[in-house]
Design a protein that fits this description.
By secondary structure, the chain is an alpha+beta fold. Helix content is 29%, strand content 44%. The chain is elongated and about 145 Å long.
Length: 604
């Protein structure tokens, strides 16, 4: 068959020319691979050194240029900073805040045009694939503005003598091993990531894009994703987990799914800390218009909105009887945000369907009581530590709607002064109709008062406070309130009723209705509560409200103590009467016995 095909002379000539052309291409490819690979390696090293001002050096064991496939393969690539150059730049106040180290076993650049690079000085690449890279970044604040740099040329201006343009269609980094060392705090904070993927598209560096603000790092699109990230806090008191993180540069949006923060064992936690214990879970967190580059370079955290959606926050008040040596004013929101090591500004924080629980332990009853705020939604405005923003507006506003103990609708507005040294704040709100007995799960263990009947019609409060004192007005409208005063039963390890105190309180002390008569003027209580330095924020708010609610129904501390004291005295008097009665009975028995003995003697 082959003989028949090649029996004509022109057939043989055609096949011969084709084979010669193929062998020529193969020969040229081998020549180009051997001749241009060293040139390419040298070119890459020069460009990295030039673009970084000598700060970085790049090395690789070998580079292969495949003309036929239009690809370049680099092996064992390492990118490292020159510490001598870094220290010199640091002395000149020109050192960057971030230093990068990179290790890659194999880097593939596909569909490159070497002739265009060699003759036209245009680097045009379709795709760059990097698998299993190891990236180490260390952060240390050396300067706060780009304008301090003496060399204000753009990257293209620095490269323009050697390259007219650089274009890369897509850059794919898969399964990155990433380590981040943060030296901005008192101690170095180390974060390590696994299962991280990054993709960038349409990178273009030329005269038209050198000042294009629509691009980030000269790319039209950069997306980073991280799966199954676990971490520990620097204090060692908490462990955390994130199911999925996605950062989209074009959208300036950060999405977090499945965020969980858990404390260590309760006994171990409170043995190490005087702080309240937190447990946090959020189904999703979204940060919009997040300026990633400002945060990466200078720790400036700037975003238009933060959305927290579905989850729960549990707060357990520290039960330590030993008072901490420092004032726990740091638990105030307008003090705590300044503990964050960042220049922060979030215009609006949206809270959607979050359950909040606050729990306290009472050493007298050896029990815990919890307040529940279910299905909490609302917004927080002007959350900021930025000095310029604080000059314009130093008030952070919180507006929330919730369901207290999963029953009564609860509306709350809080104002926090972010610049006042006394950490002043105010809160006002209202609670809608609900059964009073629902709150027994908190009043019984914490105040040893059981509500046996009653219903709330409306609770209104308006409190102004600072780190030292809280004062304001509380109005509680209710019907048919009855209570039972309790005491600790040490034998059976439970709470039991004080019958005489309860009877006396319900008859003589307790105000069963407000207003006292239908259509009458409601009573209001003016509260004044002095905070001790060991009292944290949530306990401060709760205790202030409780200080006003109890007198509203006639159970202020002075009256309650007097009631208990009177009841105790009544019990003592009853016991004395019983004892005297027994003594009288005994004396009568003795006298009767003596008379019988005398009769017996007289008979004898």
């Amino acid at each position: 068959m082959a003989v028949k095909i090649l029996k004509r002379r022109w057939h043989k000539v055609t096949v011969g020319i084709s084979l010669a052309f193929i062998f020529l291409i193969i020969g040229l490819s081998i020549f180009v691979n051997s001749h241009w690979s060293p040139i390419l390696a040298k070119k890459v090293k020069e460009e990295v050194a030039l673009s970084s001002g000598g700060l970085y050096t790049i090395n690789f064991s070998s580079a292969e240029l495949h003309v036929i496939r239009g690809s370049i393969v680099f092996y064992n690539v390492t990118l490292k900073p020159d510490t001598n150059v870094y220290n010199l730049k640091k002395q000149q106040h020109l050192a960057p805040n971030n230093l990068v180290e990179l290790q890659i076993k194999r880097l593939v650049i596909s569909h490159i045009h070497p002739l265009r690079l060699y003759f036209k000085k245009k680097l045009d690449i379709d795709e760059v694939i990097i698998n299993d890279p190891q990236v180490n970044i260390s952060y240390k604040l050396n300067h706060t503005k780009d304008t301090i740099l003496k060399d204000n040329r753009t990257l293209w201006q620095k490269l323009s003598k050697n390259l007219r343009s650089i274009h890369i269609g897509s850059i794919i980094l898969g399964d990155i091993k990433f380590r981040y060392d943060d030296y901005s705090g008192n101690k170095v904070a180390i974060s390590e990531f696994r299962e991280m993927n990054v993709s960038a598209h349409d990178l273009l560096i030329d005269s038209t894009t050198q000042a294009d603000k629509s691009r980030l790092l000269y790319c039209k699109d950069i997306t980073a994703e991280l799966n199954n990230y676990t971490f520990k806090t620097a204090s060692g008191l908490y462990t955390g987990k994130v199911d999925h993180i996605k950062l989209s540069m074009p959208k300036s949006q950060l999405n977090i799914e499945g965020l969980t923060l858990k404390p260590i064992n309760t006994d171990a936690f409170f043995a190490k800390s005087h702080k309240d214990k937190f447990t946090l879970h959020l189904d999703s967190v979204q940060l919009n218009h997040f300026d990633f580059l400002s945060y990466h370079k200078y720790r400036i955290f700037n975003a238009s909105s933060l959305i927290l959606h579905n989850g729960g926050i549990e707060i357990f008040g520290n039960p330590n009887s030993i008072k901490p040596s420092t004032d726990r004013v740091v638990t105030f929101p307008n003090a705590g945000i300044f503990k964050i090591n960042a220049d922060m500004k979030i215009d609006t924080t949206f809270i959607k369907h979050i359950n909040i629980t606050y729990t306290e332990y009472n050493s007298k009853t050896d029990q815990t009581g919890s307040l529940f705020f279910n299905n909490t939604s609302g917004q927080l405005l002007n959350l900021t530590t930025n000095p310029a923003a604080l000059q314009k507006n130093n008030i952070a506003t919180v507006q929330l709607t919730s369901y207290f103990m999963n029953r009564g609708k609860f509306n709350l507005q809080m104002l926090f002064n972010l610049t006042d040294d006394n950490k002043s704040f105010s809160y006002k709100g209202s609670l809608g109709p609900m059964d009073l007995k629902v709150v027994n799960q908190v009043t019984m263990p914490l105040t040893m008062v059981k509500i046996t009947s009653g219903s709330v019609k409306q609770l209104d409060f308006d409190i102004h406070a600072n780190k030292n004192k809280a004062s304001g007005k509380i109005t509680l409208l209710y019907n048919n309130a009855k209570v039972s005063l309790l005491k600790v039963d040490t034998v059976f390890d439970k709470l039991k009723q004080r019958p005489f105190a309860t009877l006396y309180a319900n008859i003589f002390i307790l105000k069963h209705n407000n207003p006292d008569i239908e259509g009458g003027k409601p009573r209001s209580c003016f509260v004044s509560y002095e905070r001790q330095p060991d009292i944290p924020f949530f306990k401060y708010v709760w205790q202030t409200l409780l200080t006003g609610i109890k007198p509203s129904i006639g159970l202020d501390k002075k009256t309650q103590d007097a009631t208990v004291e009177r009841a105790n005295q009544q019990a003592i008097n009853k016991q004395n009467r019983k004892l005297k009665k027994q003594q009288r009975i005994q004396k009568r028995a003795e006298r009767k016995k003596k008379r019988e003995e005398k009769k017996l003697e007289a008979g004898l």
